[in-house]
Amino acid sequence: MTLKTATLVAPPSASVLGHADSIQHPAPRVLIANRGEIARRIIRTCKQHGIDTIAVYTQPDALAPHVREATTAVCLGRNPRAYTDGAKLLQAIREYHATAVHPGYGFLSENEEFCAAVEASGVVWLGPTAKHVARGIAEAAGVPVLPGSGLVADEEAAVAAADEIGYPVLLKATGGGGGRGIYICADATEVRSQFGVSQKQGEAFFGNAGVFVEKYIRRCHHIEVQIFGDGAGNVVHLGERECSIQRRHQKVLEETPSPLLDDDTREELTAAAVRLGSAARYRSAGTVEFIFDEDARRFYFLEVNTRLQVEHGITELVHGGVDLVEWMLRLQLPGLEPLDVTEITTERSGHAIEVRINGENPAQGFQPCPGILGEVSFPEEMDGVRVDTWVETGTEVSPHYDSMLAKLMVYAPTREAAVAKMQAAVAATRLAGVPNNLEFLGELVKDKRFIKGDTTTSFLEGFTFAPHVMEVVLPGLQTSVQDYPGRTGLWRVGVPPSGPMDSLSHRLANALVGNDEDAATLEFGLTGPTLRFHCDALVALAGARFDADLDGTPVEGWWRSFPVRAGQELRIGAVSADGGVRGYLAVAGGVDVPRYLGSRATFPSGQFGGYQGRYLRPGDSLPIGRLAAKAHAISLPEGWRTKYAGAIHAPSKPGSGVTTVAVLPGPHANPDYFTDAAVDVLYSTPYEVHYNSNRLGVRLNGPRPTWTRTDGGEGGSHPSNVHDHTYAIGTVNFTGDMPVILTVDGPSLGGFVCPATIPSSELWKVGQLRPHDSIAFKAITIGDAYAAALRTDALVAAVKAVARGKVAAAEAAASLDALVIDVPEMPPTRAVLVEKAASADHPGYLIRLAGDRYIQIEYGPMELDLTLRARIHALEKQLASMAPAGLVETNAGVRSCMIEYEQRVMTLPELLEAVQNADEAIGDVKGMVLPSRVVHLPMAFDERWTHEALEKYARSARAEAPYLPSNIDYIAANNGLEGREDVRRIVFEASYLVLGLGDVYLGAPCAARTGLVTTKMNPARTFTHEGTVGIGGSYMCIYPMDSPGGYQLVGRTLPIWNAFGRTKAFTPEKPWLLEFFDQASPHRAALSSRAMAAAQVRFFQVSESELESLRERFAAGQYDITIDHKTFSLKDYDTMVADPDMVEAVAAWKAQQRVAMEVQLRLEEESLARLEEAKAAAPANPSAHDGNMFGDGADESAWNEPGMTKVAAGFTANVWDIKVKAGDKVAKGDTLVVLEAMKMESPVLAPVGGRVKAIVAEQGSMAAAGQTLLVIEDVAKA
């Protein structure tokens, strides 16, 4: 195409030049009455030419790209249908002084009433007017017309029109598009049944309820011609587009030129389109659509789409990159160089193809699939590729709008080259997280009929496609996608690794199908999922044994792989009584979900990773990856797992049911924290697994330890409290007197001691512990742990080699038997590996052992000293600059730092040497000046979310404590304050410096000294709302997600984690809000004795309702927090805290606190003693096998009569809630009871309808697996 004038006049500044006649026009402001990719398309052209744009959006679209890319964005409200609210749009046009409206396509783009209202208000309508006016004009212009009607008033008029035209007919909504409102009707009955549906869809989606009838041709092509007119009868065409590949009348693929037409037919077709446009005095961009009868080789006029069409981009590609949106602007906008249509000549070259990528699930009949896109990547760097899209990584696809996610377009000199380029472009595109048709499109463009150009509108009826997915029919309990080793390298900001709880079973399951061990599997507990496979697959089951069948045929054995055919259904039922709690399913190729922060592992508490950041649900479609290596079905040879995996291969007492787990001492042990007797008890006494164990930690019941100190000093009132502690995965953490094994979703930073840590090769055993199981700890050496890790690696590699056919099982067994691990010389196995004494110019340090993956370095005494925090910062920087091979990451606390290493690359002695060398290279840190930010955050004080967490704690963990029912009252009492108002005042006046990014559990809590000191809850809570603010010891933190925790709670603030970094305070690379040495701050300067630093995270107080509004706006990118950029000077800080008045004030304050704390400690001991007495006086806790955990039990013989249905617990759990009472009528499927176990609330549903005869369960008590909860009586037999 050649254009004599094809560009806007370049603006000399912010405005656009006017016409040559020197008439002054206001600077154009274009309101785009649309959303998605077309809104971005229009904004792009306007930006290129200095034209301001006004975007409109509804609340579900608050984070959409068009909102941030426009000059101005206007929210139309919460109603997702507000895009079709003409009144609201007209209000926005007036209030934001729009000079023109571009309707895009869809919505109100063809609404005559809205168009007229816009023009009546003196605003330019950038597009044609009206839609259904073309049929009569076409006939008059001599354009062949498909038999059809005008608009029909009702269903009887539609039937009459259909009878006259002859069946089959198409019933079409005049405002329709994208397949909506279009129905094939074979007879009058179908016309009557579909008329109202078509009418309603037109009204709902396009604001136009008009319907018309036309002839339906069975073997036809859909071909359309792009036209452009000036409204004065001058019209040009830009060639035709082949749009025949459709599904439910919705275009799937378009190309230009049509491979069907010869030159004569093409000339006749385009000439007809121009005649029609000229006769209609058509204005702006439009599309004349034709039906082409393949049998008769004739075309018929179908309709005119009076708008810019979805597929206009491929027309632009074959016409030298012409910009149709620019033409629309130049044609109608005052102030721009006008477009003379008569001077345009068309010259087309090459071939272009477009596919529409939709959020639809081919495995479930192309049903729409809303959800979060975890990965979005297009090959835009490829020559000849164009992408128009509205999605990006992290986009939440709404159920309220069209399913189209993107248009992928290619251009090449020939059709053959264009087809090849499209095949490559689709293969290079990645949209994952939400089911979509990308794989479907990839197969479509490889279809021989398409390659040949042999397509009709019924093309897809003969196209077969088997999606490479497994569909979740039933999800089971806590079924999630996990990979190994999980999400590494982010422990420093509190992001846990996640991954499998039983890594050995995960790794072996992958090996059994020939996968590499990092391929994603499914992990499930207690009850497994039911999966329908849509393709052939090789599957392996490992871990605890579950009942399983394939299409009703029992799956023989476990720890083996087996083939599954397309269409088969694999059901995994209840876990067996043999032991264990978690199973693993691996599929050859792996579960192909998006990687998030480097891993596919699900972190449900953080709502990221895996499939939609959550446990699976019915209907989920899990993509199966493509496996390069061939594998065949094998079984894990008997005895391999127990012989070669882990450090300990037998229980301590055969037949006792006690799981023996190896541990290494440290980081905290005897004599500095625990007495020798306490450590002896730890290694000699089995502990019982608490029912409220989960992926964050496995809680244990056992004897209270004895301590070598009376309190935790600045760390808190309890002797288990420490100043700060960066945790190791697998460490045995004493939260008060209760031990918790911190596991794969656990915390990275906290304030409790850990006397022992489970090495990596043994941690899998913890993943299989059930409530009420027993666990015993056995000490091993550092060398033992090193050898066990390498021996386990060799086992996994051997199984994979057998599955891939590289070696025979016997050969692999011989290799394993002959394996000799060369263990390097290790330091003595003890909690403290290295000690450096303090000196005048060095604070001294301890390097502590923390399992076989970590060491921890602690500087100076256990007290707050920012110089020590600065030294930790300098140590991290020094190690980073040294970059020794095998160093995974450093995780800073306040005066401590956990260092993770890969023992297969770097030995422990090499790491110790590197750390000591790094410390020696650190200079004087006292003069350090660090960049810092002051972050102002709103907080609601002592709000309902805090109350809810405490009520839950009182019901499930501890009914009485000095800090119950109010944490605020306790904080006041523990610090010698008069009451709650003093606590509120200090919290909002204090300044907080961010010193650690892991406490509690994720993101960036504000670890800082408020002057307030508290103990931590004993035991810790199992639940805290995301955004809650708490104080523990002398530090404050923000909980970035729903999680356990032990801090005393004071309020709630904004979310400090944004998974995809899509709002201004975050980035995709840094989805956490705060950084080290940020200053979080309220409005006034705090008393220096209660301040962490000279500057300030400061909180300002808001009400509950205000916070709810701010949280919603913040998440939607509509509320910007204030962040001031400053520096933090250690020298200034030291000067401040050394001031004599400061020293005196701090001393007096601490003396007041000590007196108050002694009182609270005494009250805590009295409370614990009462709880111990009550526990001792109660009947002994029965085991899960007794079937009687509610008091003295009840005689159930009366409930064995006909008509009585006993409802039992499916697994051992706490009775969290009882939803019914005796005598209530219930229907099948009603929720009767809610059980809580493994941090999951599970409803127990009525298996039958009837009347509740008796309730056996007691709220707050334990229910054993199989124990009767209540009885339902058949009403008919009552």
UniProtKB/TrEMBL annotation:
Residues 135-333 form the ATP-grasp domain. Residues 26-465 form the Biotin carboxylation domain. Keywords: ATP-binding, Biotin, Hydrolase, Ligase, Nucleotide-binding. The keyword Ligase applies. One of its GO terms (molecular function) is hydrolase activity. InterPro entries: ATP-grasp, Biotin_BS, Biotin_carboxylase_complex, Biotin_carboxylation_dom, Biotin_COase_C, Biotin_lipoyl, CPAse_ATP-bd, CT_A_B. Residues 702-721 are annotated as: Disordered. CDD domains: biotinyl_domain. Gene3D superfamilies: 2.40.50.100, 3.30.1360.40, ATP-grasp fold, B domain (3.30.470.20), Cyclophilin-like (2.40.100.10). Residues 1199-1273 form the Lipoyl-binding domain. It comes from the Eukaryota. The keyword ATP-binding applies. PROSITE patterns: ATP_GRASP (PS50975), BC (PS50979), BIOTIN (PS00188), BIOTINYL_LIPOYL (PS50968), CPSASE_1 (PS00866), CPSASE_2 (PS00867). It holds the Pfam family CT_C_D. This is Urea carboxylase. It comes from Raphidocelis subcapitata. The lineage of its organism: Eukaryota, Viridiplantae, Chlorophyta, core chlorophytes, Chlorophyceae.
